[in-house]
């Protein structure tokens, strides 16, 4: 029997698996997707997240990315702020299809068993205690896999966390994202910066990527506009005076993808179960937040010593069921700042 089952093999699940497998824990990781897979994201990794990768000894997973000097943020009134990370500190811009598969490879190398193309239907619950996961087999039959510990790293719409009442869609903010890849975008003058253009009711993220790609995302509160995601993305770029000339010769390389509603509410669980005052719901938690789960896992699971696992008493088993994002939200605040800036 595995010691830990992880639903979801994005950054949170893959890094949790890596850390656990290195500690000698028998860990199984499930993802409904087959990798490499794309994931709607701004595709930039901030210096804090890079420092975590470096601490874990897997900085090479981001080595194929462009070095990002900092961020440009503009506002509706024409205000423009360009900030360099400075001090030799950089971020990275890298497509998630490349980043996530590299993380997963690192988890596999550490000894985690990775099952791709396997849908997690939900937690297996007996008498109020989670005993494992129910997964859909490739023969389209449901199969129950038992383990004393389950980690819900299945993203913002986590079936596992929602089935257990640990997370729910937030009532507000209600926002959706649409994003795609472009070629032939003019980055002259902006250098290698991530960009965030904040406008009334929406914001636009732009990031240069390796290979001449550019990531552009629009996050909007206008649900109706999602009826035509391509029009929403292209019209928004065309109407934006700062971006229109830079995208004038661009080519859309991928079908625009939608995601949302983005915000997840987990306050109630954090406050009632963990006695922690939760961070407000955010609709754009950064990957460093997701990655912070690796710091959280040993603490939340209270894994003592080398290979020891918590006993499966109801109380301990319940306290070990953690929606990755929620725990990360809390632990982000307690993460030490990187002492050595990554290169
Ligand atoms: C528009 C937008 C832009 C963003 N830009 C950035 C950015 O530039 N930099 C940054 O650091 N962060 C960014 N983020 C945030 C970042 O995308 C998330 O923090 C990160 O993806 C969370 O990682 P995760 O592993 O928790 O979840 P995910 O990356 O969502 O991974 C969850 C995994 O679980 C799998 N899964 C889901 N349900 C099931 C199921 N039932 N069974 C099996 N598998 C399942 C999915 O296939 C997926 O692989 C952005 C988010 C949005 C919406």
Strand content bin = 25-35%
Shape: globular
Radius of gyration: 20 Å
Task: Output the CATH class name of the largest domain.
Answer: Alpha Beta
In the CATH hierarchy, the architecture of the largest domain is: 3-Layer(bba) Sandwich
Distance between the termini: 41 Å
Small ligands present? flavin-adenine dinucleotide
Domain module count: 2
Write up this protein:
There is one protein chain. The protein has 343 residues and is an alpha+beta fold. The chain folds into two domains: 4-39 and 96-168 and 264-334, FAD/NAD(P)-binding domain (3-Layer(bba) Sandwich); 44-94 and 175-260, D-Amino Acid Oxidase, Chain A, domain 2, CATH 3.30.9.100. Helices cover 27% and strands 28% of the residues. The chain has helices at 11-22, 47-55, 96-109, 159-163, 229-239, 244-247, 267-274, 287-291, 293-301, 314-319, 324-334; strands at residues 4-7, 27-31, 44-45, 66-68, 70-74, 80-84, 91-93, 113-116, 120-126, 129-136, 142-146, 149-152, 168-169, 176-183, 193-199, 202-208, 213-220, 251-252, 257-259, 264-265, 322-323. The strands form five sheets. Strands 5, 6, 14, 15, 16, 17, 18 and 19 form an eight-stranded mixed β-sheet that branches. Strand 1, helix 1 (11-22) and strand 2 form a beta-alpha-beta unit. The longest helix has 14 residues, at 96-109. The protein starts with a strand and ends in a 9-residue tail after the last helix. The structure holds flavin-adenine dinucleotide. Flavin-adenine dinucleotide is lined by residues 7-13, 30-33, 39-45, 49, 119-120, 153-155, 159, 177, 179, 205, 217, 219, 259, 262, 284-290, 324-325.
